[in-house]
Model the fold of this input.
Amino acid sequence: MPTLSRRRFLQGSLLAAGAATLPARSSAQVTGANSDIRVAVAGFRQQGRVHIEGFRKTPGCRVVALCDCDREVLAREVKRFQDRGEAVAAFTDIRALLEHGNVDVVSIATPNHWHALAAIWAIQAGKDVYVEKPVSHNVWEGRKIVEAARKHNRIVQTGTQSRSSTGIREAIAWLRAGNLGKIRLATGYCYKRRPTLGRVNGPQPIPPSVDHELWCGPAAKEPLRRYKLHYDWHWVWNTGNGDLGNQGIHEMDLARWALGETQLSPLVMSIGGRLGYSDDGETPNTQVVMHYYQPAPLFFEVRGLPERAGNNAMPKHRGVSIGVIVDCEGGSLTIRANDATATDASGLVIRQFGDGSDHRAKHFANFIEAVRLRKPGHLNADILEGHLSSALCHTGNISHRLGRPAAPGSIREQLLGDEAGTDAFARMEEHLAVNGVDLRSTPASLGPMLVMNPEVEKFENPYANALLKRRYRPGFAVPEVV
Done:
C-alpha cells in the first residue's frame, strides 16, 4: 500500500463535525478477551448499514470508523452516530482509514469492483476483514484475497450469512450423511424482479457529493451512461456481475456447499441474455448456468422478468423463487435463506430444519469469535469458501460474455442428451414467451462450453482466460504479490 503524507491523509479523510477520533492502540497489542474489537465499515449506502447495525449489536464490538466516497451518505450516517452520542471517525478514502490505524476490523460493503482491493489493502495493514459477497469482481482477484489472508494470518469472513444458519447447517450435514441417497443435481434459483434501467441519451452528471475518482477505484473511469450511479452499477460489467453475482451468489454458495465441491467446476456453459427490454444494462436478466461437476452437476437459473407480462409477481419452480433444490435418489432438499425442508421421492415432507433465529446476527458473531480466537477454521464462511462460490458466478458469466446469439433449435441441439439442461431451457423459453419474448426473433446467447483446470483456475480457452482478470487503473491495482 502506498505511503500517504499527512496532507494527503487530511485531504482524503472527512472528520465530520462532532465525529471523534479514537486513542491510538499499539500495533503490537493483541485484541484480548476483555477488550472491545474496533470495527470500521467501508461502504454503507445499502448493505453496509446492515454491517453497521450488525456489529453495533454484537457484544464486545464498537463501530469506531466509517468510510464512504459519497460525502452525503457519509455525513448522514455520521449524524446517526452523533444523535446516539457515539464517537466515530469518518473518511472518504479507505487508504486514509487504514493509515489512521485505530481499528482492528474492516467490514467492506462497497460495490463489487472494490471488494478485493479493499480487502487486500486492509489485510496488508494488519486488519481482520469481513467482506461482502461476491468477494471479488473476477476470479483472479478472489484467489489473491485468499493468498493475502493466509500470508498475513488474518481472519477473513465472507458475507454469505446463510452459512451461519443453524437450520441450514443441520440440513446440509444431514444431506451429506446420505439420508436422501446420492445427490443427482443441485439447482440454485434467483427469480427476482429487475425492471428496465431505461436508456439515457448521453453521459449523465456524477452526483456532486461523490468523489468519482475514488468511486471508480480499480474499475475503468468511464462516463456515467445510466440514470443512477448507485445500485445500478450491478448491471454493467465494469463494476458489477449481474444478478448471478448479486443475489445469486448466496444460492450458488448453498448449492456448492450441498454438493461438497471444493474446487471450481471443470466444465461450465451459459445460456441467456438481457431480454424483454432494451436499456443501458449489460448483464443478463435471464440466464441458465450449468456447472458440470461429477458426479452431480450444479445448475443456476436467473430470472428478472415477472411471472408474466402485466403481473409483477415472480414465478416459482417447485415452490421456490429464491433458494436451492437438491435432487437425490431418495427425495429432495429445498433450502432457503434460513431454513430447509426435506421431502421423500413422493414429495412427502419428512423433515424440516430451522428455528427462526437470526442467521445474520450469528454470522457477525461467528466472525468476531474467530477474531478473538485467532482461528480461521472457526469461521462459518472463510474467504476460501467465498472465493470459490464467487468464482462460479464469474465463470458462468464468462461463458455468457463469449456467447453468440443462437436460435432455440441450435440451443436444444447443444443440450441434446442433457435432461436437466433441456428442461431448464424449455422452462426459460416458456417464461420468456409469457413475457412477450420470442427467442426465434430475439435470440438468447449460447455461451461456449468452457473447460477449466480447477487446480490452477485457468481455462483451455485463451479468450476465456483473458476474462479471469481485469485491467486496473494506476494506484488501484490489485497486487500480483500480496
